[in-house]
Amino acid sequence: MATMREHLKDMHKAAAGFHRTMSGHHGDALGKETMGTPQHEFHKAAQSTHDQAASQHDEMAESCSKAADTIDLSKQLVPTSI
């Protein structure tokens, strides 16, 4: 059974990948827009935001990798007093 650390690490890696993909799409659109237009400014800001989010998720995935891997989801989610 995967540990909570592994689940969280995988989720953060997937989220970082999503943000990199979105940044790429905004970069592609940015190249098609005329400098200074509202659309250009939107894609520029969105690309930067996705880049920052990807970096943050990379850091969180790294933190999960370093965390103790002794947390077992099955033990955390099973009620003890029924």
Labels describing this entry:
single chain, 82 residues, 77% helix, elongated
Tell me what the structure shows.
- The mean pLDDT is 84.
- This protein has helices spanning 4-32, 38-66, 73-77.
- By secondary structure, the protein is mainly alpha-helical.
- The longest helix has 29 residues, at 4-32.
- It is built from three helices and no strands.
- The chain starts with a helix and ends in a 5-residue tail after the last helix.
- It is elongated.
- Helix 1 (4-32) packs antiparallel against helix 2.
Number of helical stretches of at least 4 residues: 3
The helicity comes to over 70%
Low-confidence stretches: none
Distance between the termini: 24 Å
Basic shape: elongated
Helices and strands, in order, run as HHH
> How many strand units?
0
Mean pLDDT: 84
Strand residue percentage: under 5%
Largest sheet: none
Please compute the radius of gyration using only Cα atoms: 19 Å
Structural class designation: mainly alpha
Task: Summarize this entry quickly.
The protein has helices at 4-32, 38-66, 73-77. The chain is an all-alpha fold.
Strand and helix map with partners:
Layout: H1 4-32, H2 38-66, H3 73-77
Helix pairs in contact: 1-2
